[in-house]
Amino acid sequence: MKDFAALFTALDQTTRTGVKTAALADYFRSAPDADRLWTIALLSGRRPRRTITTTKLREWAAERAGIPLWLFEACYPVVGDLSETIALVLPEPTTRIDKPLNQWIAELRALDAADEATRKAFILAAWDGLPPVERFVFNKLLTGGWRMGVSQKLMTRALAQATGIDEAELTHRLMGDWSPDTTSFHALVEAPDPGADLSRPYPFALAYQVEDDPATLGPVTGWLAERKWDGIRGQLILRGGEHWLWSRGEELMTDRFPELAQFRDFLPEGTVIDGEVLAWDHTADRPLGFSRLQPRIGRKTVPKKLLAEAPAMLVAYDLLEHGGEDIRPQPLSDRRARLAALLADLPPRVPVRLSPAVEAPDWPGLAAARAASREIGAEGLMLKRIDAPYLAGRRKGDWWKWKLDPLTIDAVMIYAQAGSGRRATLYTDFTFAVRDGEALVPFTKAYSGLTDAEFREITAWVRKNTTDRFGPVRAVKPEHVFEIAFEGIQASPRHKSGVALRFPRMARWRRDKPVAEANTLDDLKAMLAQYG
Amino acid sequence: MVLEFRDAGIYCPAADAYIDPWRPVDRALITHGHSDHARWGHRRYLCTEAAAPVIRHRLGDISLQTIPYGAPLRIGDATVSFHPAGHVPGSAQIRVEVKGETWVVSGDYKTAADGLSEPFEPVRCHAFITESTFGLPVYSWPSEAELAAQINAWWAETRAAGQTPVLGVYALGKAQRVLGLLDPAIGPILTHGAVEATTQVLRAQGLRLPATIPVTPALDLKAHRGAMVLAPPSALGSAWMRKFGPVSTGFASGWMRLRGVRRRRAADRGFVVSDHADWAGLNAAIAATGAARVFVTHGYTAQFSRWLATQGYQAGIVRTEFGGEPEDEPDVTPAAEPSA
Fold first, then answer.
1. pLDDT tens, A373-422?
2. Do A68 and B310 touch (CB under 8 A)?
3. Which of A143, A164, A197 delimits the end of a domain?
4. Does A320 contact B at CB distance below 8 Å?
5. Closest CA of chain A from B327, distance in Å
6. Keyword set for this entry (chain B) (predicted)?
7. What is the per-residue pLDDT across B123-148, written as a single tens digit (0 to 9) for each?
8. Cα–Cα distances in Å, from A474 out to A245, A415, A462?
9. Distances in whole angstroms, Cα of residue A340 to Cα of each of A258, A275, A346, A352, A354
10. Fold adopted by B144-272
11. pTM
12. Do A79 and B138 touch (CB under 8 A)?
């Protein structure tokens, strides 16, 4: 694990992507196959299952360090990371164990079947035989919380540099339902058998937000405009008599949306559709809000009641594979025509719809259509160049999202909580309230949107203006008003205020506004009535 | 009580004197020259001979009496003496004895020798007033040799890569300590004005430090390629730094022990160099005093005093205006100079 720890250090010591890519490419050139396969797995979110609870790890670490558990727990919020806390409190190692990454992982997984005494003995021996950085990396393997400051994209680029394989092609090869148990470095990266994994998805095309006036994109006739729906982006695959539904985060969602199984009866083999999964109101033939879909995301299978309350619909954007052929290089106009033909004669009860084109003679016409988005449950428009191929990943040029400006409300900060990791010593997680007569009613939390300098400033203020503490949460003097931006608002019986916001964040610190001028619960209810 | 904790600072009624007071008083006994301990505005100051030059340099024309380490001085009904604290050159713990009862105020201290400060000397006492800047078991320091190897390796690497290493260090203590770790064979050492001024004061009082070249507008930087630059932390990322071309930035502080702080600091490298005792050092120092009562000042006071209580000490927390809350420190500007 020495090499892997050295890689970790190299990645950790720089913020420059070029340097990171080079370090990772070096590692990919020299590491043994089993180690590089695991490295690809770890950096693409394919973690080994956790075999030991963090509760046990905390107890054992405290015991080994000769400190009471409360003192260990007191260290954790200061460090902000459990793996690091353990690595730091333990005494210096007394031996040196040098095993490759894949062997450590194999031995850890074998502990799954072992009794507690065996597990503990193994972990303590490992802690005593690893120098600090390796110990930290080992703990990361134990706790499964991998983040090395390397995106999957950066990892893929490094692998492309190391192997000479085209980056887009590699992105595709690394997708799908594989694990280091089911494949080898050679089979995954160097010589993939196209039939080996029928479920393998294509890399999703992603869009940037329109920066300027969209008229700068050229004649409106060169573009396909569609609604931007607020659902779950998904890729539906029909191959070999089976079907799979992948999320953008490369998670299989097939079992969560059993309604889509009937596609096997209506759509031909060798079909791959890119679309949006939405909860659908079949009576009005329009989407229900995201909050109706949300209960279906967290669970592996869906009870009947939910199926009836929030039936799924696939709104199809694009056709990536047709008759078993990868048609991504074809222009969008062609792909869309084929998609329309595929979906043309399906009975309406089959839960798939062609994403309707939003037609307008010119850009102002489209702008007007965009402005009406919220009323029909959309977030804005998507603009796609009509003659463009389907490209992998986020690129500028062919795909743009043209979202509505967010809704905003001025709210009072009432609770603060420290962040974790990089933000462990800063107060970054806040609860906001609206006024209701003399009372303040909490309605949302927000974590992002401020600059580092603003977070530092508010942190210092929070320390001096704490009025009460509830565990890690501090109640603060209601003094500061923030403009909270959000994408949508919906009724929620689970929240005290009766509303739930979509993507709330701090848009601005309103130093100019006294608390008495913050928005009220009535304002919030009016927004709910208008947009909920 | 031999010492009392008052609004203006730690007070000895028998001597009618304060130790490191934070409000102007008549008589101030000063442990060391950092600005949160040696403040402006007192009528009379008393410090060690070795601490005096820096304190004069910083506070200007003050009424300052000096005393050698270990020499007893009668003030009122108290006997006072100063003992090495190992924190920075000239730093002291202050021992106060009244009618056979002895209390010691540690000021800031470090138990491991750094080859520059007078090594920490345990002083037996009944009550010990300790700092707790790094009073959690996650803090433990590498050896001087290890530090020297890390910093010099970074210097050599950046030099080879055509970059200039700029290391953020507090002007008093940390800067000179790092100077002592640097290998002048690698290249010249350039200093920011704030670092150079304090270094000259300490050199003048006999400290052996490698040669430094102050960075002035007139200095021809091209003639000093491959140099290490020592600057106060505030200079990192400033316009001043741009003159060195491509740089690699480093920061030397005990806080660099934590990865989160290292990353937030956004320096390319963090070196774990502290003028304070680590967890083991604090515990060893307290045990060596033989004190039954321990008062914990600035740092992780709540956690550390609770720990001491489990170890059988009669432990309490004293609110002072030394340093800040520990969580504040990683981002402090050198104007406050609390010397991490």
1. 888 888 899 999 999 999 988 888 899 999 988 899 999 999 999 887 66
2. yes
3. A143
4. no
5. 6
6. Exonuclease, Hydrolase, Ligase, Nuclease
7. 999 999 999 999 999 999 999 999 99
8. 43, 6, 8
9. 23, 13, 11, 11, 7
10. Rossmann fold (3.40.50)
11. 0.77
12. yes
